[in-house]
Specification:
single chain, 133 residues, TerB-like, mainly alpha
Length: 133
């Protein structure tokens, strides 16, 4: 072990900031159909602007890139589990009522943004509704 080399251990959901949690949930939804469309990315930016008005765009883009790299390697079940875990963790930062009334409709907009809604996307939204009960 060198004192000059930083040992990077993988970040876990427990270490995620609220911005990271929201981004991971959105990326799971975006990748539920296998790809991230431009329109879906725009909805993500709108969500961040509303929830975190003082966020730094370059930081958010780094978080989006990292989330995409991590989630792209997951299968359908792992994506679902990851989205559920991140959503549950969000309840530590926001009230359930706030998540239900504010975040959930925006997440539904993510899956509609590209004009095509896949079953995998609706299944994930239904699971997130259960988390936000």
């Amino acid at each position: 072990m060198s004192i000059f080399k930083k040992e990077d251990s993988p970040k876990t959901i427990l270490d995620f900031s609220p911005l990271e949690l929201v981004t991971h949930v959105v990326v799971c939804l975006q990748l539920a159909d296998g790809r991230i469309e431009f329109e879906e990315r725009e909805v993500w930016a709108d969500i961040l602007l509303e929830l975190f008005p003082d966020y730094k765009q370059h930081r958010a883009l780094d978080v989006l890139r990292e989330a995409g790299q991590q989630i792209t390697t997951m299968d359908e079940f792992e994506k679902m589990d990851h989205a559920v875990q991140c959503s549950a963790k969000l309840k530590e930062h926001f009230s359930t009522e706030y998540l239900k009334e504010n975040l959930l409709p925006k997440l539904e907009h993510v899956i509609e943004a590209d004009g095509i809604v896949f079953t995998s996307e609706t299944n994930m939204i239904e699971r997130l509704k259960e988390v936000f009960k």
